[in-house]
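Write out this protein's structure.
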Amino acid sequence: MFAQAAALPVTADQMEQLEALVRAGSTPQRLAKKCRVVLLASQGVANHAIAQQTGLSRPTVIAIRCAFAQAGLDAIERRQKRKKPSPILTPELQQKILDTTLKTKPAGETHWSVRTLARHLGLSRTMVHRVWQRFDIQPHRVEKFKLSHDPKFEEKVRDIVGLYLNPPDRALVLCVDEKSQIQALDRTRPLLPLRPGLPERQTHDYKRYGTTTLFAAFNILNGKVMGSCRSRHRSREFLSFLKDLEKGVPADLEIHLILDNYSTHKSQAVQRWLQPKKRQRFHLHFTPTSSSWLNQVSVGSA
């Protein structure tokens, strides 16, 4: 015996028509099965039991019951329209996805998403995502850039790149920059050292000791950095750093410094100290405006 379920309401007239369709030899098999589903459902037979008897799937049985409950015999006699086949990714359709992604924007939005574009073009999300992956398109990502308007941009780039690629003989090329407003912090308790089975441990809280400025010179020959910290970020501190470089670099080497256009580097005190008669081995090369990417020490600290 099959389990009982809520009986599907069927009128006597509908029952007679259903039984007639099942008995008729001219009734298509698909329609006869639907009629049997409704007849069994009217007797309170469970959906899974109906599926076993008719050879249909349980979701199909449920769909037939729902359709009959809504529209009666017309629902099961009417041939269901097949779903439209999924579009094939042709070169033309692929180009349409690309053009829409790259050349248009959705109303009120900054960029297309997979879902919004798929809905806009009437395609599947999978197809849109596949095209985006194929051409490495990521509309949600934004990278910033800045153009240099330095009138001597090309001249300065050639000068600095030439130093990198072909530095002068008996010379040292140093990339110089400052990093200001570095917080000077210390833990409230001494660190507990690393031990077998235990990592190094430190307190979560710390003390503030103000800020400091790091002056650094990156040696492109061996990758070493000559640096020191100063309490302020003025031409006086920069001049002190230059004096340290003068002492640290052998006297028989020329010193080529690559710098940005910060006013500290061009102050009168620095210019007086670098007068050719006094410091002939110092040569300053300034990057174009808005072109810190040319200075390797800036790129390395970014």
